[in-house]
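Hi support team,

I've been running sequence recovery on a batch of backbones for a student project. Most finish fine, but this one hangs at about 90% for roughly twenty minutes before it completes. I'm not sure whether the input is malformed or the queue is just slow. I've pasted the structure tokens below so you can try to reproduce it. Let me know if you need the job ID as well.

Thanks,
M.K.
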């Protein structure tokens, strides 16, 4: 939900924008970053919502480039604020994530026969499935 590309594509194709976002996440993870490249390219070349269809390609690219620059500046300002005034739980969350990642890689490098399933080729799809199920359950509960 950075530039509205997925929402616009979803509206244009008459499908749920969440599916388009999920598609971009999947090709971003599995496609060696090609999803990010395609997203940025579409952000630049697609006209803004409500923009006149008669606008030239050059004007569309120029306005999109200006929007990207403005968003990059705003993101930089937000990052600076986050670094200067971090959330009180940031250390706990980052520390916990580092411990979990470290344990994962430690166990993976120990080459224990009963841990052969501990592989990123298995873990990533498993995490995606668990995340999808969690989202569906939250949606069904109305949260």
């Amino acid at each position: 939900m950075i530039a509205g590309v997925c929402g616009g594509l979803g509206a244009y194709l008459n499908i749920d924008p969440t599916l388009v976002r999920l598609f971009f996440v999947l090709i971003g993870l599995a496609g060696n970053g090609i999803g990010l490249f395609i997203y940025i390219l579409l952000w630049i070349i697609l006209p803004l919502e409500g923009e006149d269809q008669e606008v030239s390609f050059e004007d569309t690219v120029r306005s999109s480039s200006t929007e990207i620059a403005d968003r990059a500046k705003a993101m930089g300002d937000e990052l600076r604020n986050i670094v200067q005034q971090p959330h009180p739980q940031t250390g706990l969350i980052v520390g916990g994530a580092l411990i979990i990642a470290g344990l994962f890689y430690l166990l993976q490098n120990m080459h224990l026969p009963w841990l052969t399933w501990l592989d990123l080729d298995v873990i990533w799809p498993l995490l995606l499935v668990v995340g999808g199920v969690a989202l569906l359950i939250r949606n069904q509960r109305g949260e």
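--
Follow-up from support: It reproduced on our side and the slowdown came from queue contention, not your input. The chain has a mean pLDDT of 78. No action needed from you.
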